[in-house]
What we know:
This protein is of the alpha/beta class. It has one domain (8-115): HesB-like domain (Hypothetical Protein Aq_1857, Chain: A). The chain is built from 3 helices and 9 strands. The strands form 3 sheets. The chain has a 4-stranded mixed sheet with strand order 3-2-5-4. A 3-stranded mixed sheet has the order 1-6-7. The chain has a two-stranded antiparallel sheet with strand order 8-9. The longest helix has 14 residues, at 16-29. It is globular and about 35 Å long.
Amino acid sequence: MSVETFSIDQVVSVTPAAAEHFQRQLDKKQASAIRISLKESGCTGFMYVIDEVEAGEAEDVLITLGNSVTLYVDTKHLSAIQGTVVDYVTQGLNKNLVLNNPNVKDACGCGESFSV
């Protein structure tokens, strides 16, 4: 049996573009923080859930981004989320959040769900 330890720096990284996007979303929704978690879904296992919230769960990891956005990360799925880079990219006319997760082993064809 092994024991994993996590430092806040290792949990997730958020690009400046994604941090700005989060700030705009919080301003629009009049919320105070962003929470990243996973839920069981789709044909391969999990999907990301990104919510605007007033506060995280008691056990969440709290990260303050460079632009003062508060980000909560669900610890129940920390080993599956650890190392993820959150980016906000422009592809043609579309702008999307992209989560580059090094733990993903397989993803469904439509991109909605993944397994670790």
